[in-house]
Amino acid sequence: MSVEKMKMKLLLGKAERLNDALGAITSLGFVHLENASSVMADTRDFSPLNEQNQVSAVCARVEETVKLCGVDPETVEPLPGEEDAEADRLLSGLNDELHALQNDCAALRERIRLLEEESALLKHFSSLDVKLEELRKTEFVEVRFGCIPADSYEKLLQYGETDSLQYVPCSTDKDFCWLLYLSPRGDDDADRIFASLFFRQADLPEKDGTPSAIIASDAEQIYDLHVELHAANDRLVSFFQSNRGELLSLYGHLKYQNEVFALRRYACLYRGNYAALVCWVPEERCGELEAALRQVESFTVSDLTVGGDAAQGTPPTRLRNWRIFRPFQYFVEMYGSPSYHEVDPTPFVALTYTLLYGIMFADVGQGILLALAGYCMYRFFHNPVGRILIPCGLCGTVFGFLFGSVFGYEDLLDPVYRAVGLSGKPFSVMDNANTLLALSIGIGVVLLLLAMCIGICSSCKKRNYGNALFGANGAAGIVLYLSLLCLIVQVFDISVPIPGALLVTVGVLLPVCLVFFRAPLNSLLRGEGFRLGESVGDYVIENLFELIEVFLSYFTNTLSFLRVGAFVLIHAGMMMAFSALAEIVGGGALGVVMMVIGNGFVTVLEGLLVAIQVLRLEFYEMFSRFYDGDGKQFAPAVFRRAKPASKLRRSKRSAS
Amino acid sequence: MSGNASFAVLTRVRAQYGARLREADYLEMASCKSVPDVAAFLRERTAYGAFLAWGDSVPTRGLLEYQLRKAMLARSFALCKAGGADTADLRDYLLLRNSVNELIGFLRFLAAGQSERYVLSAMLLPEASSRFSLHGLGQARTKEDLISCLRGSFFEKILTPVLQSRDGVDLPLSEAILDRAVYEDMEKRFSACSSGAEADALKEILLLKAELGDAELLYRAKTYYGLSPALLRALLSGFRLRLTGAELEQMLAAPTGEDVLRIFLAGRYGRQTTSGELLSGGNWADRFLPDLLRKRIHFSAVPSVVLFAYLNWLELEVKNLVYVIEGVRYRLPPAKIRELLLLPAKERG
């Protein structure tokens, strides 16, 4: 239950074996690659790896064929790179014929595309009833076709036409105005004006006739080309059918090469001939990485210590939690991953979220329903919230037993209680409202103190001892908070075995001074002397306000936990209302219907509200005391696995 | 300013601020290979996407920067409008600032004898986004046209005497008095706020810009033009926040720009910056604003303060984007572009 320890490694080897090394790394699945160029930026002999992906074009071509023949490319598994020779054989064997067929198709598609683009462009000028060849023959002016943004057209209208600026607007759409303007030969004034209006020239085809006539002739050509393309595609499909196995294998190999290339951008060159990779690896698995790379010729693994810790940057955060806590990582990551030197709050969130949710959603029947709903959400829709709802629902069931509520029926469990020797439900919500609210505050106090303790641990872990000792959420803050609580409970005639004077001086005044002077005390701890860091006036004013804020936050954060008790009362109240409605309609079947509706309404509404409110308590009242969440998530380099065909069909169905 | 509408705006501002561009975003854009790549990033992954349009064509640097500035103004006006009467002062600030920017733009063309070209580079916004007729300004060709366009407006009394005082256009003086008019008008409005703390926080942002504008003006004037103290005094806004009167006098009397810089850095600002940072590009105020704005947006509970800070933040964001776009266009390495970015110290990696 912590953040996994990481080590930065430098992998160095011959550049031509880089793909093999990357293949080995991805097969491990626990190596987080860093951009080697940026890590080694200040180090001599390292240079970026500037190269073009030669495989992507071939891969895209084969993928197109695969798609054309009804196979989803995502279902094809990438094939590891050890079959280079095999792939080359396949490629050379199939390539010529495939290439020829694909070239036919591609050429036809390209011709169609060009004609369509030409038509689309000419449509903007279709209102022009002039033959283009006549405009090309002008002697004293040049005619420029193009468009300007709609804004610019407004400016042009304001600017107006002058002797040197003549234009003809042809059409407008949402963003652009399409026009032509005349630019006298030898005078570039009009060109400069239109350049400042973001004019974009359109290259009209060198064809004769009016734009409308050219569009009509293009349409005929496009139709003929589509017919030809259809026939060419048929030839390609029959080729695929006869070479299906080889083509899929070829595609898998190219896909693998393509994905490896995507990882090559993390590498850099060392002295021209060697490739260097920089990565973070979980400390305990360094051995596995070394063993895997021993299989790759010439590659060595070493600890990276160049430039000291600062140059290495922040390690990524990989959370390691017990299985039951893992679903709650979703909430933690929603707020922000913990930084490497921070305490992982997942177990704390898991326990407190479940507990608070259970209290606020206390009902045996509804709790079980919620747990089942959570299971279904996770099982069938893979919704991560589903896994969180299961323990919450079960905890709600436990508290439902404590408060004696089953689907809103408050006396259904009475026989059970009597059977175990109790006179009635252990805790009657409606009869002990004040106790319930006081208990809520008590829970809040305990959780806030826990949050502060975690804050101290986190500060110590980050070696920020000043914050741990003198921070508003550090040791001084805990003493201050507890002392204020003692003073407040004394108002309610509850005696505290600490003398009042001691409480005020040591419990309140001393911590207040420590919190007030935390910045200079912090610098004193670091051995930098007693420094305020700004002018005395600024420091005093700023920290006075911050102190007020500290007091206010203690007060408001504690009171905020009243919502825990309030929700228990609301739940009981709402279910009582539906019970009353069920009685009003005369009970029987109608009463049952009313209770079913009531339960459905309350389960959905309260389930959602409680989830939000508890999350708010976690994030706002507790996380703000100890958690920054500015870490970098651990993202191991792995290849995307191919989707199973059945899953793919399902996802397509849901998409449609 | 404490109505419900203003608190709704506060929520919107905080939500928009939450989705602000961060250093990682700028660096990702800085590592793009071309301006169209940056444009694609902005359109697909940022809040500016809704305001950017270039159809299927490839956007140019000029078009992109123009649309970003327009987007910034549109977002700012939308926020002020949402606050209704509660944010009227800040809407007035935007109107005034926008009007002054347009007027300065026009005066530059007028001084260059190309007033008819002004309309081609004007920021096209609705007429209601200015304190006078922008359409009239677009039609103006001479000083007299400008004076008649400004008749009856806030700027008539301010600018007309300067325009009539001599042949041609006294551009530095005109710019100085227009900027000063913005600061004076807004300072008066902010001072009239019902809460002293609100007024102080609003004025702090405003006066920081005014004061640092003065200091920068002195540095540049002494370094490049060698203007006399008397002339310089007329160009200053006269507002003080952290500089003392004595420091300002010393800066006015300083023989060179180096001396101005030395006196400036010996004062309270010197604790927060170095000469290298200050002279690395952009306005001096831009080097100090990010930290102040972040502090106000994070910690202030007053809607007007948060909104005003955010309006200024949006300006900085667009400036950062322009740095990135120019940097990519001239193939600056991302590390160099990173140095130019205007970001709070706490958000720098």
Q: Rough shape of chain B?
A: globular
| Average pLDDT of chain A | 84
Task: Give the low-confidence spans of chain B.
Answer: none
| End-to-end gap of chain B | 36 Å
Sheet with the most strands, sense and barrel status of chain B:
none
Uncertain regions spanning at least 5 consecutive residues of chain A? 306-311, 645-656
Number of strands of chain B: 0
Structure overview:
The complex is a heterodimer of chains A (656) and B (349). With 656 residues, chain A is of the alpha+beta class. Chain A has 4 domains: 2-49 and 268-312, Alpha-Beta Plaits (2-Layer Sandwich), CATH 3.30.70.2750; 57-114 and 220-257, no CATH class; 130-209, 2-Layer Sandwich (Alpha-Beta Plaits); 320-626, no CATH class. Chain A contains 25 helices and 12 strands. Chain A has helices at 18-28, 36-39, 55-68, 84-123, 132-136, 150-159, 189-196, 211-242, 244-264, 286-294, 308-312, 329-335, 346-360, 364-381, 384-403, 414-419, 433-461, 465-470, 475-491, 500-516, 518-525, 536-560, 562-584, 588-626, 645-655, and strands spanning 2-3, 6-14, 32-34, 46-48, 141-149, 166-172, 176-184, 200-201, 268-270, 274-282, 300-303, 319-320. In chain A, strands 2, 3, 4, 9, 10 and 11 form a 6-stranded antiparallel β-sheet that branches. In chain A, strands 6-7-5-8 form a 4-stranded antiparallel β-sheet. In chain A, strands 1-12 form a two-stranded antiparallel sheet. In chain A, a hairpin with a 3-residue loop joins strand 6 and strand 7. Chain A starts with a strand and ends with a helix. The relative contact order of chain A is 0.12. With 349 residues, chain B is mostly helical. Chain B has one domain (4-347). Helices cover 68% and strands 0% of the residues of chain B. In chain B, helix 1 (4-18) runs parallel beside helix 17, helix 5 (88-111) packs antiparallel against helix 10 and helix 13 (245-253) runs antiparallel to helix 14. Chain B is globular, with a radius of gyration of 20 Å. Chains A and B meet through helix 6 of A and helix 4, helix 6 and helix 7 of B.
